[in-house]
Write a structure and sequence with these properties.
Blueprint (H helix, E strand, L loop, with lengths): L2 H8 L15 H8 L7 E5 L6 H14 L7 E5 L11 H15 L5 E6 L7 H10 L5 E7 L8 H6 L3 E5 L5 H7 L6 H8 L13 H24 L4 H14 L6 H10 L6 H13 L3 E8 L4 E11 L3 H6 L7 H15 L3 E7 L2 E9 L2 E8 L5 H12 L6 E6 L12 E4 L6
Parallel strand pairs: 1-4, 1-5, 2-3, 3-4, 6-8, 10-11, 11-12
Antiparallel strand pairs: 6-7, 8-9, 9-10
Helix pairs in contact: 4-5
Length: 420
């Protein structure tokens, strides 16, 4: 048998011989399966090591449980050296033809291709197969950069795909994975460690630190430096460190240029802006633009950047002195993104609202605070929300163990009970 087909057999998912599946990411699986049975390409995007491969294998398992024969499910992970022979679109086409010839599958086939961006011109294979009415086939693909859905693929597919952003474990997933009771103690454990799924198997702090460092180095090198031919890799990492250090603060590109100038580091606006776009493209950071609440429009200039997992701060850059309030704000931001909201920093008169979250016709305003037990702090947090003249949902989120009463329509939520 062709060695390429032997590789497919090696990684075939069978009910009696299941690969490691990890924690069931049911939120993602349920959303994906809403589109199973359609010709839409299902696309998972997200930072390395947040669980995309596990989700694809869980998709394969559910297909098996739904009665799909194992020979009709093809799982390819381009990070496995066994798949080094897949270098281009033509290699994919050749494998597809050989697979059909050898196995002669009956009925629909399902192709699950992990880290597909490592195959040259993969877009052409995906586009062709998704449109070929003679082929009864569904495609699930994943990638570790946001450009997966830009440029040629978006043009070629023109609406014939659905995308899902995959994040590290949410708090609810974290307590399931670690068998913890919900509550403040478990939530503090969560934000003081981070949500990388592999942490479940790494009980020691040093092993987690080494793991996070390896993720950071891999993303910077493989997803940015090599892909974009970055000339100053040291500056790239230093900008990432700066953004971790400045998370939850409004900053501008000019602020960053001035900071490096004060350290006798030569750079310019264009370079810094480009390197930040690379970091965002690899999902290491997320940009939250300012939103004029009265004018209902975004404001250019200063913005905030949040890291994709607080583990980067917790294990690599602890010395910056950012405390629990910073971790809480970053965590709430990520949870809003998980829930599918577009998240902004709100501006109303001379006040700032931590988050304006928009999804379809829904708008939510949130203030995030370590505690509102102190009356002066409570006045400050509620005042920003009370200044908003509309009747959309408004919340104050804190780590207090008691729930405070509703005030002028503004609800208080414990951070570990953040369900929106």
């Amino acid at each position: 048998m062709d060695s390429r087909l032997l590789t497919l057999l090696k990684y075939r998912v069978e009910i009696g011989d299941l690969p490691r599946l990890g924690l069931l990411r049911s939120d993602y699986i349920d959303k994906l399966f809403e589109f199973v049975g359609t010709q839409l390409v299902k696309v998972l995007v997200g930072q390395r090591r947040v669980g995309k491969s596990y989700i694809l294998r869980q998709v394969a398992l559910k297909l098996l449980q739904n009665g799909v024969p194992s020979q009709n499910i093809v799982y390819i992970n381009k990070e496995f050296s066994d798949y080094d022979f897949l270098e281009s679109n033509s290699d994919l086409n050749s494998l597809f033809a050989k697979y059909k010839e050898e196995f002669n599958p009956v009925g629909k086939t399902y192709w699950l291709i992990d880290e597909i961006q490592n195959i040259s011109e993969w877009e052409r294979f995906v586009n062709s197969l998704s449109q070929d009415f003679r082929e009864d086939c569904e495609l699930f693909i994943s990638g570790s950069n946001s450009h997966l859905l830009s440029g040629e693929l978006a043009t070629l597919l023109s609406g014939r795909y659905v995308s899902f952003n995959v994040f590290s474990l949410s708090y609810s997933e974290y307590i399931l994975a670690n068998n913890l009771p919900t509550g403040r103690s478990a939530f503090m454990d969560y934000i003081q460690k981070g949500g990388f799924p592999e942490f479940v198997n790494l009980p020691l702090e040093d092993s987690r630190r080494n793991y996070v460092s390896a993720i950071k180095d891999t993303v910077l090198l493989r997803d940015i430096v090599q892909r974009f031919k970055v000339k100053d890799a040291v500056l790239l990492e230093d900008i990432f460190v700066y953004l971790v250090n400045s998370a939850s603060n409004l900053i501008s590109i000019s602020n960053i240029v001035d900071f490096f100038a004060s350290k006798k580091r030569k750079t310019n606006y264009e370079t810094v802006s480009t390197y930040i776009s690379y970091l965002a493209n690899a999902f290491l950071i997320h940009k939250a633009e300012r939103y004029n609440i009265r004018g209902k429009e975004t404001i250019s200039g200063n913005c905030k950047y949040y890291i994709n997992d607080v583990a980067f701060r917790n294990y690599l850059y602890k010395g910056f002195g950012y405390g629990t309030g910073y971790l809480l704000e970053n965590t709430v931001y990520l949870e809003l993104c998980r829930l599918g909201f577009n998240v902004y920093v709100g501006i109303i008169n001379d006040k700032e609202v931590d988050f304006v979250a928009l999804k379809n016709d829904r708008k939510i305003y949130l203030q995030v605070s370590y505690s509102i037990e102190d009356s002066e702090t409570a006045e400050r947090e509620y005042a920003s929300l009370e200044a908003i003249p509309d009747s959309f949902e408004k919340y104050v989120v804190s780590l207090d163990e008691v729930t405070f009463p509703v005030r002028n329509g503004i609800k208080h939520l414990k951070a570990w009970e953040l369900e929106l």
